[in-house]
Structure formats: C-alpha cells, structure tokens
Write a structure and sequence with these properties.
This protein is an alpha+beta fold. It is built from 7 helices and 30 strands. The relative contact order is 0.13.
Length: about 500
C-alpha cells in the first residue's frame, strides 16, 4: 500500500512521536523554588514596609509592591551607634533600624507620614489609638516621645516610629504634668538644666536715641536796633564760625546817635567833673545794651569818630543752623538774623517703655555708641526725664547729655543708648531661655527627679541681662530645663503637647 514511499512515511511518523515521548519526562522534573538556590543570599525588603522581607520576585503582603534588594547596613535614626540587620529594633528606643545612607530621610518620613493606614502597623503589640489627654482627671497615660499626639491608656509602641510609649503621670491640677524621659533620651536630645538662683538684676535698657542740639548752647542772633545789613559775614547754613568771627555789618541811624551821645558825654567829663562820670557811665551802658562790642567802644574812645557800619561778631564757636537775612535787607529787633549752635555738647533723646519709667532718675549714668562714626560707649548722664508719654508710641523720653568729641555727632543721627538704672536685689531668677512663652502665660519645665519633669506656670517680673525675675511658681534650688527640650520637628510638637496638656484641650493630631 505504501509502495516506494513507505520508508519516508515511517520517518515522518517517527519525527511526530518523539516530542510526545519527551513531554512526560519534562513534566516530571520538579521545579526548584527561587529560594532554593544557594547563591541567592541577598535579602529583599519592601521599600514602604521595611519589616516585610522575602526573596527576589516576592511581593509585599500590605502594599503589593515588589521587594527590592537590601545592600546597606541598618542603624537607628536616633542612636546611629546601634546597628544591625533589616527588621531589627534599636535596644535603646525600640525604633526600627533604617539604612545608614537614608537615616535622615527615613526619620523624616516616619516623623511626618501621618497618613499611613492603621493596618500597616508593623508591631506585635496592639495598635495605639490616639486619645485626648485630660490632665485634670488624674491617672497615668502613655505617650510617644517623638509624637506626643499618640496617647494610650496601656503600655505599647508608637504606630509611627515604633518607639516604646513613655508613662506620663497626670496630676490632679492642670498646672502640673509629670513626664518621664529616660537618661538615654535626655542625652540624645541634648537636654541641659540649670538651678533657680537668688540674685540681683540691674535695671538696664538697650535702646535707640536721636542726637539733638543742646538747647543751652543755642544762640539766637538779633540786632537790637533797626537798620540795614551792609555786609554778611557768613554764606549759608552749615558754615562753621569761631568766637570773634564777623557775622554781619549793620548801618543803623539809632546806633550812630548812641555813639554820638557817648562822645558828647566823653567831652563833658573834662568840663564837669561832678556830672560827667555819671553821663559817661549811662552813655557807655546804652551802647552795650544796643549790642555794640566792648572793643568797638574802646576804639570809639580812642578815635573820637562814630562808626557808620557797626560790625557784629560771634560770641561762641559753632555752626550756622538758620540764616534769615541777605545783604541789603532791612531788619528790626524782632528779626532773627541767624541761629548759631555749639556742638561741643549734645543731647540724645532716648525712648523707654511705659512700664520702665520708674527705673531711672536724673543723674544716673548712660552710654552712647555710634559705630558708623567710630564712637563707642561715650559716657553721659541722664539730665532730664520728660513728664509726658508719646501719645502714639506710649513711650517715655529720657534726655542724655554728653560731650561731643571733635563734633562728630550731628543732630538727627541715630545712636545706640545704654541706660543704667538702680538694682533689685534678692530676686528669684531663671534664664530667659528656660521660658516657654505662649502669649497668655509663661511656663518652665522643672526637673523633679533624674527622669521626671514637671511643667509649671510662673509669674514673671523684670527681665534683663538674660535673666527673668520669678514672682511665683518657682523656689530657689529647683532645676529648670534650659536647652534640649525641643529638637528639630519635635520642638514644636512637644511644645504644643505641653500647652494642650496644661489647658486640658483635646487635640488628637492627624488621623492614623
């Protein structure tokens, strides 16, 4: 039936049968699991849930992400000296170890990833439900040191960072909350405490002042007769003059008549020895009262001729601060020709707060600094305290009088002013850096025992030189926290937690 093609058909049938015979053999070979290879030693973990580990190709049972290889050494974000493998916890704070190269990033994510679901808690302990903390009710609560809004009635761990919750004893008063902080955590936070002391505070104010003319050294130049300015000896405001320099020359018929009367009295002195001296005295006094210089009167006696253009000279050194006339102008006694100021001594007007007005008295020391002019701590004295407050700023003005070396201080300049008042002794003092100021009240954190801290409200008095007077709330010898109670992002959260605990408000933070 097959004929000559029989061998070919047998060959074709054999080729079709061979794959079918090979199939059972291939199917019977057991498939080796991925984790059975001895060379697969590298661990894999979920990028979002570090506690979920496995092998290559596995998925995270929580977020279904593929596991990624883990190559880095793991360390505690809070205690970098504590290292280990993935999934290990820190023996100090119980936080999960994170890759060393990503410690800061992981710590930031753990501290701020408040949107994580409650089901993602990688802890064997029960999930902690945030509860409002009511300090007035008394009892014990457990709070996360890094996330104060995580509060529990029972011991446990924080669902965010995995740290053990710390016991917080709530007193019967809203003014006192006992917080336990272990020694290791205190060292990690860099906490520093200082003792409340008794001491002395000097009433001291560092403020700003404005330089003004010394009004006692201000000269208003007037001519005491009517006349015309024949020659002006100064050109403009700001010109410097010395004592004896010419200010102006005046032609005045009244002043010429007074000179003539003086010459007549001088002639009568020779003929009438009884009345002559009195007439001479009155004529000379008239010239002096009209403003004629004594040297000009002596010149008049020697020459016997009246001056038609009478010169007027500067009576002191200073600067022209105001000039109201020009050559040829007619003036009267009411006309202020110019204003001359002396800058050898100046006034500095400083402002202090209304509640500080009782700190100072006239005659107390002050120091003025103008760093731009190279003048530092010029010594002066308070010579006047103004009786009225500024209606806008509600500040009190204090006047300081001081010498002006080389005339460098110019009116209108701003300077730094240090005012030294009297001392208050026997005060209870704390460093100002220990204060937690909320705007409505002031609080401090007091170390009651080695690991116990209490929040206390205090009433403050005077604050100066980095110290605050405590009127009530603290006693000398108590120890207050001055540094380290607020660190990085926990600074604001811990501060807010203390405020919430002391006020009894129920803030549970973000939803977990």
């Amino acid at each position: 039936m097959f004929g000559d093609n029989c061998p070919a058909r047998w060959l074709l049938a054999l080729m079709l049968a061979l794959p079918m015979l090979a199939l059972p053999t291939h199917a019977q070979q057991p498939s080796e699991p991925a984790h059975a290879h001895p060379e697969q030693a590298q661990p894999y973990a979920c990028p979002m849930h570090l506690d979920q580990t496995g092998q290559q190709g596995d998925r995270c049972p929580k977020c279904k992400m593929f596991l990624t290889p883990v190559d880095a050494t793991y360390a505690c974000p809070m205690h970098p000296e504590q290292t280990g493998a993935i999934g290990d916890r820190c023996p100090i704070c119980n936080m999960y170890l994170a890759p060393e190269e990503d410690e800061e990033e992981v710590a930031s994510q753990e501290g701020h990833n408040h949107g994580a679901e409650a089901g993602t808690q990688p802890l064997s302990s029960p999930a902690v439900k945030p509860n409002p903390l009511q300090p007035g009710s008394g009892g014990v609560k457990y709070v996360c040191p890094m996330h104060p809004h995580i509060v529990s009635d029972e011991p446990g761990t924080c669902p965010i960072c995995g740290m053990d919750l710390e016991k917080v004893e709530l007193g019967t008063s809203t003014e006192e909350v006992v917080v336990g902080v272990p020694g290791g955590m205190q060292q990690a936070l860099g906490m520093r405490v200082e003792s409340v002391q008794q001491g002395t505070l000097w009433r001291y104010i560092d403020t700003i002042g404005t330089v003004e003319y010394d009004q006692d050294a201000l000269s208003h130049i007037h001519a005491r007769v009517s006349g015309w300015i024949e020659k002006l000896g100064v050109a403009s405001v700001g010109d410097q003059v010395k004592q004896g320099d010419l200010l102006f020359e005046l032609y005045s018929p009244e002043l010429i008549n007074a000179q003539d009367d003086y010459l007549l009295a001088l002639d009568s002195l020779k003929s009438d020895t009884i009345r002559g001296p009195e007439l001479m005295r009155k004529a000379r006094l008239r010239l002096e009262l009209l403003g004629m210089d004594s040297r000009l009167i002596q010149q008049l006696e020697r020459s016997g001729k009246s001056l038609y253009r009478v010169p007027f000279y500067a009576q002191q050194d200073g600067y022209i601060s105001q000039l109201n006339v020009r050559d040829g102008m007619y003036i009267q006694p009411a006309t202020e020709v110019m204003k001359l100021v002396n800058l050898d001594n100046v006034w500095v007007i400083a402002e202090v707060f209304e509640n500080q007005q009782g700190w100072f008295n006239e005659g107390q020391d002050a120091a003025v600094t103008a760093s731009a002019l190279g003048l530092f701590e010029l010594e002066g004295q308070i010579d006047y305290i103004y009786p009225e407050l500024d209606p806008v700023t509600r500040a009190m003005q204090v006047r300081v009088s001081l010498a002006n070396p080389e005339g460098k201080l110019r009116p209108g300049s701003l300077v730094d002013v240090e005012l030294y008042g009297t001392a208050k002794r026997g005060l209870t003092l704390v460093p100002t850096e220990a204060l937690i100021q909320t705007g409505r009240s002031n609080r401090v954190v007091v170390q009651r025992a080695d690991t116990e801290f209490v929040v206390k409200e205090v009433t403050l008095g005077m604050i100066a030189q980095g110290k605050a007077e405590v009127l009530s709330g603290l006693e000398p010898g108590e120890r207050v926290v001055v540094s380290g109670q607020f660190l990085l992002d926990s600074e604001a959260s811990l501060k807010g937690s203390l405020m919430r605990m002391s006020s009894g408000s129920a803030h549970s933070g973000h939803s977990h």
